[in-house]
Specification:
The complex is a heterotrimer. By secondary structure, chain A is mainly α. Chain A has helices spanning 30-33, 43-53, 55-73, 106-113, 137-173, 175-190, 193-203, 208-218, 220-234, 238-245, 250-258, 263-286, 298-306, 317-341, and strands spanning 87-89, 95-97. By secondary structure, chain B is an all-alpha fold. Helix content of chain B is 75%, strand content 0%. The longest helix of chain B has 36 residues, at 86-121. The termini of chain B are close together. Classes of the chains: A mainly alpha, B mainly alpha, C alpha+beta.
Chain lengths: 348, 314, 551
Amino acid sequence: MAELIPQTVPPVPSDAYVPVAGDFAFLDRADILTDTNYASLSYWKGVFIHFFKNRRAVIGLVIIAVIVLLAVFGPMMNSYGYRDIVQFRNESNRRVVAKALEPRVPWLHELVTGEPYDDSFADRTFLFGTDDLGRDLWTRTWHGTRVSLLVAFVTIFIDVIIGMSYGLISGYFGGLTDIVMQRFVEIANSVPRLVIVSVLAIFMPKGMGLVIVALLLTEWIGMSKIARAEMLKIKEQEYVLASRTLGAGSGHIIFREILPNTIGPIITQMMFSIPTAIFTEAFLSFVGVGIVLPQCSIGTLIEEGFNNITILPYQILPPILVLALLMLGFNFIGDGLREALAPKLEDM
Amino acid sequence: MVKYVFKRVGMAALTLLIIVFLLFWLVRVMPGNPFPSERMSDVQIAAKRAELGLDDPILVQFRNYVAKLLKGDFGNGTSLYYGVPIKTVLRTAVSNSFRIGGFAILLGTAVGLLLGITAALNRGRFLDGFCTVFSIIGVCVPSYVFLIFLQYTFSFKIPFFPYFFDADRFAFSSVMPALSLSLFTMSTIARFTRNEMVEVFDSDYVRLAEAKGMYGGKLVRAHVLRNALIPIVTVLAPLVVDLLTGALVVEKIYGINGIGKLMVDAITGEGIDYNYVLALGILYSTLYIAVMLLVDLLYGVLDPRIRVAAKEED
Amino acid sequence: MKKLFSLALVFVMLFSCAAVSASADSDAYLGVMLSTNVMSLDTNLATDGESFEVIADCIDGLMQMDADGAAVPAIAESYDLSEDGTVYTFHLRDAQWANGTPVTAHDFEFAWKRIAAECEEYAYMFDSTVGCIKNADAILYEGGDPDTLGVKALDDKTLEVTLEVPVSFFPSLMYFPIFYPINEEFFNSLEAGTYGTSPETFLSNGAFVLESYTPGTASLSLKKNENYWDADNVKLAGIKYQVIQNSGEALDAFRKGELDVVTVSGNQVAAAEKDAALSKSLTVTGAGYMWYLSFSQTENNAQGGMLANKNLRLAISNVIDRYNLTDNYVMDGSLPTFTAVPPQFAANNETGEDFSADQDQFLDLCDYNPDAAQAFFEAAKKELGKDEFTFTIIYGSNEGNEVALVAQAIKEDIEAELDGVTINLQPMTKAERLDKMQNDNYDIALTRWGPDYADPMTYLGMWVTNNDNNYGFWSNAEYDQLIKDCTTGQYISDYAARWEAMLKAETIVMQEAVIAPLYTKANANLISGSVSGIEFHPVALNRVYKNVVIG
């Protein structure tokens, strides 16, 4: 390199001071190694601290933790199993089933009204009431929450891994790649899910696995669209250009440089695809390719409750509330994460 | 640009052809029979299959179908509204679903944007929290549950809106279904708008504009909203297609003769109606492809910095 | 914000104006709920009860149903029967189509021959299993000339129908829509594929004419036909039908006064019973069809044909608590059923006695008897050399909310009583269920059958070897012979002997547990207090409105 540089530097005046080694020295070697303003925290530690300083994020975390705990331990908190029908035979040998009962706590009822319940299940406690088959809804709600949490996590996974990568890659490369990838999205999105799933059901056992595959097939599309749009917006910015000039590879630019800057809408999209996935699961169960009865999920519980919504509204309330709380929790966490991952000046 | 649009339309046609073939094949593999044949003998079924050409090689069937399709003929229903040309049934269904869906889109987008902007401007305050909770409820409560609630309150308890859809009083009787359908769009748009705007507010150029003394509505319109619109348009696009093509349960509950109900009836009726599934699939895909094309073009309009494939190829 | 509010206000006002201007007239119309869409108004193509009901409102056949379900004259004033019982001569009255042209015997001949030629789903009512019209089998299944069908217009007012063999219930078939007339001239003036798709393309000769209808619509209305031959006796100004598929909504629509006749199910029935005012409006009517379990007996299914074992089938049938199903899960007044032919639809022409009036005759074969079931199960285990069984019950998830409940209750009963049997539940669409059954690809199916005509043969005929509806592939030579004797053999002209033979056949079905009958569906109707005269029937036409009076 050296010999190619034209010798245009003006000659050094003869009386100028010639620097020698030892003229300058660091007072302390540690000064180079630590930047006292920023680098005292690792990135992730910063995120962590930032996240926990955010009151709403912590509330979100608590909500999710409580729901997860209830999903794990809730069904064990009373003596009913999720498929146990509460019933007995009366004198005339007919079966009496504790079906469609409103929430009841005998001692509370007695305290308020002064007298016990006057039916065959006077001494039974059903915190959330019972369903049409005579099963305890408390147990079923938490049992169903397990299934739906699984669906939620699968959805997040699909969104992040498949949807985001697909969208970012399609948007980044543009041109023919983008065209082909977008046409594929159009095709994938155009075949009614019910048709694909029914065909899949020929080759796969019905149940949770099939639900996951069904979600896999289309749930990523919304996310890929968002990621692509974000990519289109960001890829022309100076820092991307700078990175490219410095010789960074596409993979590095996409996933290291651009991805962190798209995190906002991506998290929002993730949050909103969870209930969609939960309802999709319920619909699949209804047409017989989802979870298998007497199993349940938040979605199927909402659907069962819907049949009685005007006369027995308590049936649909617990699953909807759990879903709303789940969403609230996830959203708070999502907001907290977004702010923690991409801190803005004023937050510092 | 014109060249680009033409190219995209050509590609759309090809994509559509692939989709039709895929549907064509999948629907024939689906478990279930095209004929509701509890009372038909095997001889009768065989005759019907032959009549519809279902025993021909699939490529021959496909060719015949596309040839008919190009003449605008979707064929007849094979089990749904059997014997009636699909076009006849589809016409009313499309008009109902499009109008109610369109209403829902307008309502959802307008209110969603308003809510989102309000929340972003009042960041961290009560209105912001309200917007968050509202949008969470909006996505958690299925539209049909909301419709039942509306129906119960504003038609049963307070008899104001009609209890069922009534084609003679179209606008009036589509208020409740459109409102309940718009809820999801409203929430999604509100949330996205809020988050996007907050992000744009934090960006350097908005700070610069603020420093120059720009504030309030002018700032929002000139700088913030325009930049925030890209992701919003992206989420809105598929919602538009979904809303226009009807919502099954809402249509069922409110007695709307629409596309969503038709699709599920075609698949879950006594027999799978091949022709309906195909016709509706084609309708859906065409809409989807068209809307996506529009969105890609809109990107360029909204943000001149974005170079979609268009410019690179021109 | 202010702007927003004023905008909202304007909106509300706008719509309230619209509301006021729009609600008027249509007072004397009867508001009726339909549970599914009307699929077709063409007698040739209609297959569902809703379509049959609307067609029958608008078109009269040769005979009609009276309040008790007996066949009484309609378009035919009278009929003669030949000595050998095979030739019916119907004498038509002076009736008119709604457009003023007379209803002639040619209209019947045209309609029937069209049905024979097109050979659609219900054309089987012409063939040797039901109507036995001359040459029907040859035309329908062997490509014969439709013109050879045994129906002939001797003149404008006389129709002659020739049968292959005497059919004791033939006149009562005549009220079934497949036997209705179509005005040939009108039909031919229409573009192909448009008959019955709008009020303009549909011609009535019955009590009502179509006022508004498009295929796929959830609401349709009929108005009184002034040209109807019996118009003086029709008091109703019209009928407004609304499709409702949600029982809760049906209940509210009734309470609101939106509809006068609705059908509710499940918890809504319980709610109506508890309500003082509603319980007065509650009327339970037989819906006719029977739900039962069909057992696949071929080797392809049920772990290599395990269900071909009679004792295993009996064991299963004996642990199902049918009262539990109807009391707690179906709840709409459906009858627990312990016979292979459901009660209340087929009465003996001579004695008037219901074929299945005695529900106790097979109690030892299909009631809830855990001990007996245990004995059957032990025997089955010994015969099969196995004591672990896993079966899948398939059912249609879109066939009513109660079906999933019933399936789950059955699963719990079987698993609780029969140690070693595991039941998996598999919901699917009705289309898929039928497909699986037809292709012999299921273990146990929760399925139903509705009577098409008022004779036990509509059920018993299904279990004959190689019948298309014999989804279990059960086969029994003695049974086949008995049924053959009843339909085409020695008993066709001996009513009492035929009746006995059918009872004997039913006994075989029960002893062999070919099916496990569960319950006979009923409808819990709410009928507004001012309405009277609706006739409900479990067979053919479920509801008839000709004699309805409001007020």
